[in-house]
Amino acid sequence: MLANTAEIRVRLAVERLLYAQRLFRTGPPFLHHLLQIEFTQIEHSWMHGLRADLAWMEEACPMSTWQDNLTNPIDWWQEPTQYWTRLVKKVWKLHLTQNAIMADAKRSMRGSSGICVQLVRLLILRLKTFVIGMNDSIASADVFSPRSVVSLHTSARHMRFFQLNTSFYRDARVYIAVSSSGPLSDCNNTWLIFLRPWVIIHAFMRYNLRLGRFLTAGLMKVAPLHSLACTDVIVYKLKAQPSAPVLCKIFSVKLPRQHWTTATGNSLLFINHQNPF
Amino acid sequence: MEKLTAVRAPGQLGGFPGQQVIYGSHAIRTFGALCDNAGLSCAVLFLDLASAFHHLIRESVVGAWDGSHLEPVLAVLQQSGHAASNFQCFARLPGLLSKIGIAEPIVRLLRDIHIGTWCRIHERWLLRTHRGTRPGSPLADIIFHALMVRVAQSIDEWIGLQDDFVSFMHELDVAVPTILWADDIAVALATRKAADLVPFLQEALQHVRHTLRDYGFTLTFSKGKTSAVMTLKGARSGELRKQYQLHANPGVYCTFEDGQTDAFRSHIPTSRHFVASNHALHCELRSRVGMAKSAFAQLAKPILTNKFMPCKLRLQLFQSLIATKLYFGLGAWSAPTPKQIQYLQGALIAMLAYWSGAYPG
Fold first, then answer.
1. Does the distance separating the beta carbons of B34 and A37 come in below 8 Å?
2. Taking the model in full, what pTM does it have?
């Protein structure tokens, strides 16, 4: 993602949603009528585009069903309030954030820079199983993210976005596994998180997110510990920011498979190429 | 302006609260799309007034106070070919504002504003006006909009008398009034047969010119000024396109009532108002990209790629100075094709790549 700018189609959607409110609030009545007639007679009319934009907005930020019936949003737009503008801008920022994460992931997968590349190579190519020690932790925005113009946003702002129940997370296949011996509430101490694709790994590491929010929002699927063997597994607890050499050292530690379930502690990290699901 | 809102013409947008210039172009594009869909030939007549604000006779709107200082105005009008008899009545009549029902105190207030106002220049000289507001006064626009109310109503009344046009507009369940934004006027017209379109346009132009001259305005017919964007459909449309559009000097000569002959141009494919004759977006896209690139070329070296300025600031400047030009009116676009989106995206990425130093030029 370049310069905090989304692709044109999304920009068009955002501009059209903002324009629609202005149009239906202060626009001339004859234009409203023209648009209604165009909507009924022409297949790719402006109103059809508006409906598609509303569908996109709902997907990004689920609130209500608008795309089937335009009457409700039109009534809403005619009220003198700024809430709609705020809502559209919120969705725009959410989209930019998701784009930033995807761009980071793509860049790191391409092997463009730094420790990120080394980590990915370790995870995919060399290591099969390893554990991070009890007192170690993985969390770093600076270490993992490549230096680029993308890093214009702040982690605090991003944390807000990740609370939303969006299809983005469902598509990213986020799973969480907790120890079969402990209750779900213990997940603050022991987290086994299956992540695919890499985008979420970076999202978590980069923005220092609290995973408890995902649990409460019902975004993560809980799996028993014995089913661990996903392609990409990361377990971590955010405590401090380790340096790159420390991370490499951590990743080189190997642990036999039989010790997986017995491993307890604050932070764990498993890697296995077999897919248990 | 609040008082005028109640009596304004439906298509009069400029100067009124909440109105945007993009509403006008959106309405015209939608009208064109509907006519295309119905198989009608349509045209949009864009009118350009010569120095509109300077040709405004204030007495015609607010009424004359005592008739003094009107003689030089009438002399100038006579010289420019306007019949002075049309304007003699200003000294007697109460003015347009009174006729459209504006309260007498407001009319008197506006009249006072336009008579004997003054301003100070360089803290030394005092400039006193006999008629008209002081230079730069925002109040000057009010009476201009008041006059244009009457102009728009007059054109709409004439269009309402064209039975054929009105009947198929009723069939389509569509009504597009004359659209005005300050001194820019657009008149949307349509006919069933392609052959009828040019005569109808000429007729409309005659009436509009006559109406405007009654109020002291003059139309300019030079290249890029008063023009019509025509969309010809149905029988003989190919032949008519060759006759009026597809040659080196597209346009039609009109002979007006006073014997004067002027040519108005029927542009292909677009007018300067970004309306294409096929009602597609490509000409607007091209002009938007052109404007953005031109602005970028102008600002790139001193500001946007200046490494001594913070990256965040340069990015903000890019968004506000360049992206706004590229995206102006984006919300009113109907549905760009994937190729058009790709074209726009390509232009944006090229500029951003240059901005970030990825490649020079």
1. yes
2. 0.68
